[in-house]
Design brief:
The protein has helices at residues 2-11, 37-49, 52-58, 62-88, 94-97, 101-133; strands at 17-19, 31-33. The chain has 160 residues and is mainly α. A two-stranded antiparallel ribbon has the order 1-2. This is Agamous-like MADS-box protein AGL82.
Amino acid sequence: MKKLEEFSIRCGVDTCMIIYNRDNSSGRGPTIWPRIPERVKQVIDRYFSKGVDQCNKHAMDLREYFMSQKRKADKELAKVRSANWAAKYPGSEDLLNGLSQDQLQMVLSVLRMKLEIMKKRHLAAKESAVMNALGMVPMQMDDFKYDTPVHSHMNDYMPG
């Protein structure tokens, strides 16, 4: 109840809490906060006076709450990933402006080679999916060996 009181004070909102005992063997009835029943009744009456539509607009169950939190976290994660991607792989033309024609040709050939490798991997993945669907044992992606690493960076070809 201390947390509820702290919440009410910090957020400046009227709150109430009613806790029902599972077994009413004590004969005490429910525990309420604030301890003044008139205040609890005021909060409940104000809640119901707003109408069902107004109350439901702001109310959410646990599933809705966590989905909302997940959406917020996903949105923030997307921003951070985008910033990381932009920092790691700048897309500025300035990267290519300082290169000679030979260096540009080298970058172009590396990009073409990477594109071909990725096309082969994509085709292998599609064939693997078809074979799985037919109940056959597909070839493992590890079976594809390449002489050139796929993850080399443009910086490897920049003048130092």
